[in-house]
Amino acid sequence: MSFTTADGRKLTYRKLGHGPVLVCHPGGPGFSSTYFSDLAALWEQFTLIMLNPRGTGGSDRPADRRAYQVDDYVADVEELRRHLGLERMLLLGHSHGGIVATAYAAAFPGRVRALVLASTLARFASEQEAAMRAGMEKRSGQAWYPDAVAALEEEQAGKFETDEQMADLVFRELPLYFAHYGAAEAGYLDTLRTEIPNADTLRLFNKETFFTFDLRGRLPSITSKTLVITGDDDFICGPVCAEEICAGIPGARMVIVGDAGHMVFVEQPQAFHDEVADFLGA
Predict the structure, then answer these.
(1) Contacts of 12 (CB under 8 A, 6+ apart)
(2) What is the CATH number of the domain that holds 277?
(3) pLDDT tens, position by position, 171-206
(4) Rounded to an integer, what distance in angstroms lies between the CA atom of residue 270 and that of residue 40?
(5) pLDDT tens digit string along 241-266?
(6) Residues 173 and 277 in one domain
């Protein structure tokens, strides 16, 4: 499904399920909603509106190759809310999508009824980097580890020119994002290989945003009830990140899912489903 923004761009989204509308923003940045799959079967209780962010999944790329700032994505969420005719919405963001959802809920507190921040962070500073390095070291005995780390370092250094080159790096590094990387996880990643992500936005994020953004000052503006959920073994957006977000949002609830990495809804789908459904239904 699609609609046209005020400035003439097409944005697309997937609609799945029935029940109250839950707007879902995927991460990356540069990935469409495809990797959400059925989002741990939350469609059984909710109508999932899974946005394909600008430049992904049939959504137009902006004419300005720098128009991938956090607040640009926030503006698109507001466009989607208007298109859907929602006065207030349930909003879920994963990873970079959680950054967007956080910024949206702070900018438009009256528009969010409940907020789910999954496997995300408010900033990436020394404490978060130390946790990331420890999480990576924990995986260092795996045969795929040296190649995954090399790919991650190349990706974060922007050593790619095309969407295809970035996709190759990302798929090499993705084993790091699971608590356990085996046949099932490899099979899940194989289902995503048909999509080529958007290199423009990830390049900009890595170069200008990742090490400098800081949402802590915006967190107290969030008035909706908020669930912050992550995996206990998420190497990049784990408990350290969840604790910092919860410290800034009044009354936020934190859930740490055991035996899970960054892709909690894939690794522990029942736990993710139950925690999110119970929270949104409460």
Answers:
(1) 1, 2, 52, 57, 58, 59
(2) 3.40.50.1820
(3) 999 999 999 999 999 999 999 998 899 999 999 999
(4) 7
(5) 999 999 999 999 999 999 999 999 99
(6) no
pLDDT band for 129, please (50, 70, 90 cuts).
very high
Tokens read off for 268: 């522990």
Instruction: Write the single-letter amino acid at 215.
Output: L
Provide the pairing of β-strand 10-17 with 2-4: antiparallel
**CB-hemisphere CA count at 13 Å for 195?**
22
In sequence order, the 6+-apart residues with CB closer than 8 A to the CB of 44 are 17, 19
Q: What is the span of the domain harbouring residue 145?
A: 130-205
Residues 117 and 187 in one domain: no
Strands 10-17 and 47-52: antiparallel
The Cα 276–Cα 217 span in angstroms is: 26
One-letter amino acid identity for 48? L
